[in-house]
Structure formats: C-alpha cells, structure tokens
Design a protein that fits this description.
Elements (H helix, E strand, L loop, with lengths): L1 E5 L8 E5 L9 E11 L1 H9 L7 E2 L3 E9 L11 E5 L8 E5 L3 E3 L6 H5 L2 H13 L8 E4 L5 H12 L3 E6 L5 H7 L3 E4 L5 H8 L5 E6 L4 H8 L1 E9 L13 H5 L3 E4 L2 H7 L1 H16 L7 E6 L3 H8 L7 E5 L1
Parallel strand pairs: 9-10, 9-12, 10-11, 12-13, 13-14, 15-16
Antiparallel strand pairs: 1-2, 1-4, 3-5, 3-7, 3-16, 5-6, 6-8
Helix pairs in contact: 3-4, 3-10, 9-10
The structure holds NADP nicotinamide-adenine-dinucleotide phosphate.
C-alpha cells in the first residue's frame, strides 16, 4: 500500500509517500481502506516532536473509510461497513489495521471527511466542559485557540449549554465565523491583552472555567483570567512551549487545575468514551453540531496539508482524502 511515512520527526518536509507492506488483520481487529484522514493537532505535534516508532512509521490518530477485512474474533463489524477509527498512529495510509474497539459505525448522512474529524476532537471537547469542567448553565468560559478543531467543538457544546463564551484567536479574519457559532466575545491576542480583556468583559471577576490547548504564555494568561475558586483545564500544547507554570498562581485564587488526555480516558474508562463518541456521531448526523473543515488535500499533497494545518490560517480541520 501507499503510506505517508516519517523516518525522523521534524517539519512537514520530513513526510514522504512510499510503498510499504499491507497491514495484517489481528483476530480482534479490522482492516480499513481509508477514504479520509484528518490532521489533528496531536498529529502535528507527533510529526514535529516525536517520539516515532520503527520505520516505516505512519503517523496519525484518525481516519474514516470502508472495512475490507474483519478479524476472526470480531462479530460486530462486517466487510463493507463505513467506519471511523481513532488510534495512536497509522491513519496516514491507504490501509489501516485497528482494534475493532477503536472503530465506530458512521451514521449514513456523515461524509468520510466529517467522520474522520470527529472522535478525538469532539470527545475531548465534551470532557473538558462536562466530565472535568463541570460546566453549569450560564457560566462564563475562556477558550484559548478557539478557531482550532478542538476550540470550535468546545464552542459549539458550550453555546448549546448556554455558557457565555470568550475565545482567543491570532487573526481578526476568524472573528465573524466564531460569532456565527455563538462565541460571545473574541479576543485577538496578537492585538489585545487577554487578561485585561477578560477583566473588562467579566467586570473584574474572571471566568468560571478556562480551557487551554495552547500552553506556555497562553496557559498562564488562562490562570490569570480565572476567578477565585474557578477551574483551569490544560488540554494541549499547540505552541510547543516547555510549559513552566508557576503554581503559586493557582494557590492565590484557590483555583482547581486539571490536565486532560482523552487517550487515558479511553484506556481507563473505555465504555464511557465509546458511548460518548457514538452519541456525538449521532448528534452531528442530526445536525445538532457541525464539523468545520477548512481545506481538503489529495493524498500526494501530505506535506502541503501539514504545512497548511500548522500555518494558523485554518478555521477548523484540514483533511487529506484518498
Ligand atoms: N489532551 C487531549 O486528549 C487532546 C485531544 C485533542 C487535542 N489536543 C491538543 O490540543 C491542541 C489543539 O488541538 P487542535 O486539534 O485544536 O489543533 P489545531 O486545529 O491545529 O488548532 C490549534 C490552535 O491553537 C492556536 N495556537 C496558538 N498558539 C499557537 C502556536 N504557537 N502554534 C500553533 N497554534 C497555535 C491556533 O489558533 P490561533 O492562531 O488563532 O491562536 C490554532 O487554531 C493540540 O496541542 C492537541 O495536541 C489534546
């Protein structure tokens, strides 16, 4: 099969397309012929910073496609089923071998591009707000990197839950689309001070819950912008900073701090996460939420696709189709 492989972690130009052996089907697994591959924030991080496994190494969490082989111990899937899969690596290829428990049926009216962009992003967004953030109706939240895949999913769930949403972006061009999703206040962090703006918007109280997928200075600002006894969630490090946070900032305001990794929830709380993703897929199929896809690239444009995904120009997901 053709695969987008990586011999050494680093910039997008390290990606290459090569012919590698087809994957074997595990008795508890399935083989998927991929139709769409999403480029998740975590894929960019894995490509840039590693660690990577033995060559030929195929990165990527999420893809959607059609099952072409089913393991001898799998009874809940058949050849021909349309599925989306979420796993630690292997999405950037024509064929993918995954455990059956890492795949979900795609509802009929969802495209492969949409499905490929759903599980990690939307389940993490939901966990940030509800499982760990305990968001109450009417509360005020701050979401850094709100125009990224994760940020837009958080914004949609929070809007439906009647939260007051404050989001940060680097570029004014993203503001009108965020307003359409229901983001109440948007801070262009390249122009305005995030903490001052949050104080102005909240009458110096601060937010109930701050969610930070960016890291570094953005995480410090999130803590600073949170109210007495508020909550801060660190869910990513899109800035690739070394994240040296001064924890006295948390003590001063009795702030609760949570780190979140969906993969840990998936391994410790498998059924909860599996059901959550199913529920989200059905809600997106019913048009309660939307997958925002900025650009779709061809398989032979993987380098360009990764370059665009980390250019900070995209609004939502960048997808590779096969
Ligand atoms: N813990 C988990 O389980 C989990 C699950 C999903 C994602 N994540 C993590 O969450 C982060 C965001 O994921 P995503 O899928 O939303 O990524 P994405 O779609 O690539 O979006 C990242 C956003 O971060 C913002 N950003 C701020 N500073 C940045 C910088 N220096 N470099 C690049 N982007 C910067 C960008 O918005 P502006 O340019 O407008 O500031 C961009 O929209 C990633 O670190 C990812 O690994 C973690």
């Amino acid at each position: 099969m053709q695969a987008i492989t990586l011999n050494e972690f680093g910039p997008p130009s390290n990606l290459q397309i090569e012919e590698i052996p087809d994957p074997q089907c595990h008795p508890k697994g399935i083989i998927i012929k991929n139709k769409a591959i999403s480029i998740e924030g975590g894929d960019l991080r894995a490509r840039a910073l590693g660690p990577i496994g033995e060559a030929p190494y195929v990165i990527g969490y999420q893809s959607a496609g059609i099952i072409i082989e089913v393991g001898s111990e799998v009874s809940n899937f058949s050849v021909g089923d349309r599925v989306v899969a979420m796993s630690g690596n292997g999405s950037h290829a024509e064929l993918r071998s995954v455990p059956a428990k890492a795949a979900w049926y795609m509802p009929e009216n969802i495209s492969f591009e949409e499905a490929a962009s759903i599980p990690v992003t939307f389940a993490t967004a939901h966990d940030c707000l509800f499982e760990f953030g305990h968001l109450d109706k009417g509360q005020t939240i701050l979401v850094n990197g709100i125009s990224g895949g994760l940020g837009i999913a958080i914004a949609q769930f929070a809007h439906r839950h009647k939260a007051h949403i404050i989001g940060t972006v680097s570029d004014e061009k993203k503001v009108s689309k965020l307003k359409e999703i229901g983001v109440n206040d948007i801070i262009v962090h390249t122009k305005n001070d995030v903490v001052d703006e949050v104080k102005r918007i909240t009458n110096s109280i601060g937010v109930d819950l701050a969610i930070d997928p960016v890291g570094g200075q953005a995480l410090e600002q999130a803590i600073d912008a949170t109210k007495y006894r508020g909550k801060v969630i660190s869910v990513g490090n899109a800035s690739r900073s070394d994240n040296q946070i001064d924890i006295t900032l948390l003590m001063k305001k009795n702030i609760s701090f949570n780190g979140i990794l969906l993969a840990s929830e998936q391994s410790k709380n498998f059924t909860r996460v599996y059901d959550l993703v199913n529920n989200i897929l059905n809600n997106i199929a019913s048009k309660n939420f939307k997958v925002y896809i900025d650009k779709v690239f061809n398989f032979n444009e993987a380098i360009k696709a990764h370059q665009y995904a980390e250019s900070r120009k995209a609004f939502g997901r960048v997808v590779i189709k096969i």
